[in-house]
Amino acid sequence: MSTFTYDLTLAGLSVGSAAALTGIGLIVTYRATGVLNFAHGAIAMVCAYALRQCVVGWGWPLWLGAMVTLLFLAPGIGVVLERFVFRPLSVLGGDPAQTLVASIGVFVLLVGGAALVWGQGARDDAPELVSADPWGQLAVVLVLATGVGAVIRWTRFGRELRAVVDDRQLAVLGGVDADRVAAAGWAFGSFTAGLTGVLLAPYVRLDPYGLPLLVMEVVAVAVAARMRSLPVAVVVALGIGVGQSQLTRLHPADWRGQLVQAVGANLFVVALLVAALVLPGLGSRDALPRTTTARIATPPAAWIVAGVLFLLPLGFAGSDLHTSVQVPALGVVLLSLVVVTGRGGQLSLGQAAYAGLGALFTALLAAGRFPLLPRLPELAALALAVLLVAPLGLLTGWPAISRHGLSLALATFAVGVGVSRFVFAQPYATSGLSLGRPSGFDGDRAYYALELALLAAALLTTHALRRGRTGRALAALRDHEQGASAAGVQVPPLKLLAFVTGAALAALGGGMLGMGVRAFDPSAYDPVRGLLWFAAVVVLGADSTLGALAAAALLVGLDAGARGGVAAALIGVLAVGVGRFPGGPYEALRVAAGRLRPQRRVRLTVLGVAVRRRLRPVYVRAGSTEAAGPCVVREAESDAGRASGARSLQGHAAGAGQRGQASATPADHTDVARPARHDTGWKHAPAPRRTPAPPVLTAHTLHARYGGFTALDGIDLVVRAGQVTAVVGPNGAGKSTLFHCLAGTVRPARGQVRFGGRDITRLPAHARTRLGIARTFQQIAVFPSLTVAENVRVGAEQGRVAEPGSVERALRLFGLDGDVRSLPAARLPTGTLRRVELARAFAGSPRVLLLDEPAAGLDTAEVAALTVVLRALAAEGTALLVVEHDLDLVAGLADVVHVMSAGRIVSSGPPDRVLDAPGPQETPA
Ligand SMILES: Nc1ncnc2c1ncn2[C@@H]1O[C@H](COP(=O)(O)OP(=O)(O)OP(=O)(O)O)[C@@H](O)[C@H]1O
Fold first, then answer.
1. Tell me, what CATH number does 139's domain have?
2. Which partner from 372, 377, 589, 711 sits 20 to 30 angstroms from 226, CA to CA?
3. 854 C-alpha to center of ligand 1: Å?
4. Is residue 324 part of a domain?
């Protein structure tokens, strides 16, 4: 090996060691707590500053500064974060969404805090703890990795750690002190962050923004190791480090060479892009605090006040006016986050990239440097830049189709970092670039007026996306993606729409920002800004346009008026707390106000029916002297008849009977007395016989597998119009898998699903809904931020046919046409929510209703009323398939029962025959 190659290898090992350290720290924290610590780089930066402060600022000996920094400060930060930020969140349920936002909040807080304390400028006098000789650093890394690996594998603490990671609650029940394990994980993770920071600081720019970003760029190392394997992380880190170092030999001749060199010099970013966009995703849960609250409408007065405040700067002069110019521009950028994150519920940490591209393209187009295009006037350049950047929204929109939670966070972050490194930081794109204002708007006042007009256009666009059919579909997507898909919402195109619109708005705002300062400044659009803007929008109410405008004013105002870093620190503090108030500050205010004022109570009937008694006569215990009474429906209806909701149901069902669509109406059933049979065990009265109805949905030899495990083993099933078909069986029998295959959320390995003769095996869930297969969920899927009527309207708009009056009909049928219709679904009782979900499914005029444990969470009276409703729907001609554990409900409701065991249907027939037979169904959960 030549000396040059050897030297480059050594340099690469040095960089790779620091990356390996970061990987080890991220993996250990993730394993111990389930949190991907976005603040890791910021902790590294704070520790590097602290060591410099001790040694350079206060003149301490290096060993003392290093001990205090690495053995007290770094682990201390970890313990404090665990105790005061992440433990409360894990007590609240450990939603990864909230921990992600909190860790971004910690990042922003530390960056802002460091800028406040140590200033924003870069330092080049960080003390050198370990000599530049890479062998020393490598030794540190290998000792650490081996030590951690040994602890995890062979010690009691390691076993506890693995137990907590696998199932925290189970580990706690088993006597493990999960908090201690999490605190140790955080302390160690922060220690490695601190070590990375002090090792790197002498060789890179030590500043509050650059170092954290540099450290987070190597997160690919941990992702490549699937957040699990320390040896893989170390090997990948060293490999990329050496590769990156070797590629510095390239000497560019033209812009292509420069691009290749840029790739070589940023191999960790390339690895991040590959890890985040190509490798399978890490987590699947939603990445935003799930909306549990209704959106609070902005009072008109607030808009008037905002309008006046935004007009005020027109009367300003000098530096005040010059600063104000940034507010509308940043407001437009933040509105892009309202569209993507607030309304669409899609996490986007890379929005700064689109803003920067908007500014860059505007500058290139206005300068005549854009390939193949002539020089354009500034306003035309801005408009064309917006159009050009909009489709680039697919860069993050495409991954968002299949990625959620952490995976989407990483993908959008990676795109932000990639664009920053490969476009903004490259001289071939940006050298000698200036950006002027449109002619006629050169002065600050005129330009501000132009910005207000553009802001108004952006507000109108945002507003349009928050109203009407698309607005409701977006809200549904945000509130419950699976539920939205089940309601017929075409989720992938809707996500793309959100990201493309978001990219266009960000580009517009970015171009306006650039024109405001008459320059393209790459640092104004770096990925740290993306995190800050994301945090600012989330804490001020992600779905609030006014919140975005307030955030813009706050960020610009604090940056201009206070010491640098105040804005970031404030936003960080708020973001750290946001997980405790998932609805944002409005929710916090509401909670506070709620303590002072009693909440408005709404009286609701149960399923629209004043049913108070459990249905009695379907079962009689052996030896009981109680005679069988009339059948289920008469009992329920005799109570129900007193309620308007029941009248609507009866009328509805009778109407259906008159139209001749149904084989039986509830009234028909009341005429069928069910004699009791006195025998051992629970017995069932015979169900009324019906004439065979035509098949609507059929399954043919369905096979489904999870890895090597066969969950469905050749299922044949027929669901007929006007009948209730039930599937029962013990836990793990495969009922839910069958349900998912029919609903389109699981793709069978073999076999067919047919609907009205058409093969729909490969159709996605939303397409099945549009054909006429609606479903409900075991865990109720409603859209909490929408009102009851809006929930039902989503079902009607996206369902099989948009029949006029279908919303009102569904609301009436399920007894939701009173005051409750205009209440937000958040915080309604379970029974009402079940009705809302059913009404939503029904409003799309489905031919088949798939119901996954519809009685889950309902009390006896609600189950009784539910039976009436489902009977009425079947009587109307709808085909119902019910997967249910409640055998009482099945016996009283179903026409045909299929019993499943170990992935097969082991018996089928009318409930009285099937449920009486001994078999696996007798041990349901
Ligand atoms: N995503 C999955 N990955 C691996 N195995 C799975 C998955 N989902 C289900 N299984 C397994 O497939 C089998 C069938 O599960 P399924 O949920 O369909 O049964 P079930 O009858 O609905 O049970 P339950 O009544 O408890 O919901 C079970 O052994 C289950 O452990």
1. 1.10.3470
2. 711
3. 18
4. yes
Instruction: Report the nearest-CA residue for atom 3 of ligand 1.
Output: 706
Which of 702, 737, 901 most suits a substitution to test ligand 1, by most atoms within 8 Å of the C-beta? 737
Residues 838, 883, single domain; the answer is yes
Per the structure block, which two tokens stand in for 107? 């990042």
Residue 378's pLDDT band (boundaries 50, 70, 90)?
A: very high
Domain final residue pick, 575, 596, 617: 596
Atom of ligand 1 nearest to the CA of 778: 27
- C-alpha dihedral (510, 515, 516, 520), degrees to nearest 10: 70
Q: Which atom of ligand 1 is nearest to the CA of 706?
A: 4
Residue 123, Cα to own-chain centre: how many angstroms? 38
Pocket test for ligand 1, best of 284, 735, 739 (most atoms within 8 A of CB): 735
Ligand 1 center to residue 902 CA distance, Å? Answer: 10
Q: Which residue, among 847, 831, 740, 822, has the nearest Cα to 486 in the 3D structure?
A: 740
CA of 734 to the centre of ligand 1 (A): 6
- Probe residue for ligand 1, chosen from 710, 736, 898 as the CB with the greatest number of ligand atoms within 8 Å: 736
My answer on whether 219 and 146 are in the same domain is yes
Higher pLDDT, residue 52 or 813: 52
* Residue of minimum CA distance from atom 18 in ligand 1: 734
Same domain, 269 and 317: no
Crossing angle (nearest 10°) for helices 156-166 and 134-154:
80
> Could you give the count of Cα atoms lying within 13 Å of 674 in the half-sphere of its Cβ?
27
Is 335 found in the same domain as 271?
no
Q: Kindly give the distance from the C-alpha atom of residue 712 to the centroid of ligand 1, in angstroms, as a whole number.
A: 10
| Amino acid symbol at 490 | Q
Domain count, the chain: 3
Which residues sit with their C-beta closer than 6 Å to ligand 1? Answer: 706, 709, 711, 729, 731-737
Q: Is residue 613 part of a domain?
A: no
Q: Whose CA is nearest to atom 5 of ligand 1?
A: 706
Ligand 1 centroid–CA 711 distance in Å is: 7
Q: Given pLDDT bands bounded at 50, 70 and 90, which one contains residue 630?
A: very low
Q: Where are the alpha helices (DSSP H) in 579-720?
A: 585-596, 632-640, 644-658, 666-670
Q: Are residues 387 and 485 in the same domain?
A: yes
Domain that holds residue 491: 300-596
Same domain for 212 and 322, yes or no, is: no
**729-752 tens-digit pLDDT:** 888 889 999 999 999 988 999 999
Encoded amino acid at 157, one letter: F
Range from 618-627, 703-712, 891-900 carrying the lowest mean pLDDT: 618-627
Atom of ligand 1 nearest to the CA of 883: 22
Distance of CA 564 from the midpoint of ligand 1 (Å): 54
Residue 292 domain-assigned? no
Pair (304, 173) in one structural domain: no
DSSP codes of every residue in 405-423: HHHHHHHHHHHHHHHIIII
Give the distance (Å) from ligand 1 centre to CA of residue 306: 53
* Dihedral (CA of 614, 617, 619, 624) sign: positive
pTM of the model: 0.81
How far is residue 663 from each of residues 631, 660, 666, 783, 850, measured CA to CA in Å?
A: 18, 8, 10, 34, 19
882-920 pLDDT per residue, tens: 998 888 888 888 999 999 988 999 988 888 877 765 554
ipTM metric: 0.97
CA-closest residue to ligand 1 atom 26: 731
At position 701, the amino acid (one-letter code) is T
pLDDT tens-digit map of 312-329: 999 888 888 999 999 999
What residue has token string 């132009």? 450
Residues 306 and 265 in one domain: no
Give mean pLDDT, residues 754-772: 90
Least confident of 94-98, 107-111, 404-408: 94-98
Tell me if 418 is assigned to some domain: yes
Task: State which amino acid sits at residue 589.
Answer: L
Reduce the DSSP state of residue 728 to 3 states and report it: strand
Domain boundary pick from 536, 561, 596: 596
